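Chapter summary example: a protein plus iron/sulfur cluster.
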Amino acid sequence: MRAVSPDHPDHFREKRARALRISRTLAATYPDARCGLDFENPFELLTAVILSAQTTDARVNQVMPGLRARYPDSASLAAASPESLEKLLRPLGFFRSKAKALREMAAAIVERHGGQVPQEMEALTALHGVGRKTANVVLGECFTTVGVTVDTHVKRLAWRMGLTASRDPLQIERDLMQLLPREEWTPFAHRIIRHGRQVCRARKPQCDQCVVRGDCPRVSDP
Ligand code: SF4
């Protein structure tokens, strides 16, 4: 018997059904999965996501109240003195480069967008320090979802679960967007991130305790 091509419609349909089952199972397992960053508006979320590089959401949440009190909007942040801003960001590490990124991002929002966070992927990713992953978080949480956030957990788990054959974040995003309905894109990423932190860790995934093991080729393949 001839092997079925991975591109065969039947194979794709099966994969889409499996992706949806995984998403639903994880939804039941982590009903409170959501963005771990505290924010009150799109500008704060954009700021927080930029600050979350190389640190934890919890640490970012600790510095956000001080940042919010001192620099409540893009105009005040763009005009911040580097020294004062760096002092506030010091607990996060890489505080000089993060302070510079925030000031440049805020200045661009003031100059190009009248002080408001833009709502388009292209305009967001044109801002200093904002990549597609950051833009997807902001759009998914505050505006209109246009993609799937692909961070290190989504990248690793999508691969292990056989939902992509690529290691490239943009291709992984495209693959997941094809497999899942739009309304699942943002919550799916939150669930996967939680599962990646708690069970399907980079080293030693706990497959024997995994709720989606029946749908994961890493375990279920003969
Ligand atoms: S079965 Fe193992 S590899 Fe697959 S998702 Fe679960 S923990 Fe990860």
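Key point: Residues 157, 160-161, 199-200, 205-207, 210, 212-213, 216, 218-219 surround iron/sulfur cluster (CB under 6 Å).
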